[in-house]
Amino acid sequence: AQTVTQSQPEMSVQEAETVTLSCTYDTSESDYYLFWYKQPPSRQMILVIRQEAYKQQNATENRFSVNFQKAAKSFSLKISDSQLGDAAMYFCAYRSPQGGSEKLVFGKGMKLTVNP
Amino acid sequence: ETGVTQTPRHLVMGMTNKKSLKCEQHLGHNAMYWYKQSAKKPLELMFVYSLEERVENNSVPSRFSPECPNSSHLFLHLHTLQPEDSALYLCASSQDGWRSEQFFGPGTRLTVL
User: Fold this and answer.
1) Do the beta carbons of residue A48 and residue A37 sit within 8 Å?
2) Is A23 helix (H, G, I), strand (E, B) or coil?
3) Hey, of A25, A26, A43, which one would you mutate to test binding to chain B, going by the most B CBs within 10 A of its CB?
4) How far does B18 lie from chain A, in Å, by closest CA?
5) To probe the interface with B, which of A5, A30, A45 has the most B CB atoms within 10 Å?
6) In this structure, how many other beta carbons lie within 10 angstroms of the beta carbon of residue B66?
């Protein structure tokens, strides 16, 4: 079974600085999707960025980028120029293509605080 | 209304009550999900419906009963719950297919007394 590990339960960053959130996963599959979701205090979970495993190029979305290391099974999220609105819980998630399953496997999450 | 909506946003119930959570998606998706989010635990997938058929049930106790009358609506019927069932219940929807992004609702904060 796939597992997703976010080893740091909390992090903080100064506004305008850069922060990296770590995520590792375990799988025997060769193709899959990885996601970072953000859950602000209002509780609506929103997708930040996603990466398909067969694509070697790291995904980027404006100030958000990932460092995808397939061999190491590592999928970290870098937030550049941090803003107060980036404060939230961040969840790393894995999705398998197997058997038509829609299942997302989530990590425990990491609370990011942005200090003004 | 846009996106995925959930009602009620907060619910307090006793262990002998029967209540229902409602989810509605306005995105034209054909797959819907129930997740349970407890403090300090990963999100747990409870149920998946694809084209109104239940395709996954993650060993959820029978005191939770889902219903998907059509592709836009999903219910979670609750009866004789336990205090440990207190959690945030999140609904999500997506297009069918593993490459599709899941869109989440704001959740229902459930407290069982």
Assistant:
1) yes
2) coil
3) A43
4) 25
5) A45
6) 20
CB contact under 8 A, A100 and B98: yes
- Kindly list the distances between the CA atom of residue B10 and the CA atoms of A79, B25, B82, in Å, as whole numbers in the listed order: 32, 19, 17
Q: What is the mean pLDDT of residues A34-50?
A: 91
Instruction: Please state the φ and ψ torsions of residue A86, each to the nearest 5 degrees.
Output: -80, -10
Of chain B, the end-to-end C-alpha distance in Å amounts to 32
3-state secondary structure of B85: helix
**What is the rounded (10 degree) CA torsion for A94, A98, A100, A101?**
-40
Structural contact between residues A75 and A25, judged by C-beta atoms closer than 8 angstroms: yes
Token representation of residue B51: 């084209």
Number of inter-chain CB pairs under 8 A, A vs B: 60
pLDDT in tens, A95-104: 887 655 567 8
Contact at 8 Å (CB) between A81 and A63?
yes
Q: How far is CA A81 from the centre of its chain?
A: 17
Buried b / exposed e across B84-102, counting CB within 10 Å, b at 16+? ebbbbbbbbbbbeebebbb
The Cα–Cα gap between B79 and B57 comes to 18
Euclidean distance between CA atoms A110 and A44, whole angstroms: 16
Query: What is the identity of the amino acid at A28?
Result: S
Measure in Å the smallest separation between the Cα of A100 and chain B Cα atoms: 7
Partner-chain contact B99 A33, CB within 8 Å? yes
- Kindly report, residue by residue over A11-34, the tens digit of the pLDDT: 999 999 999 999 999 998 888 899
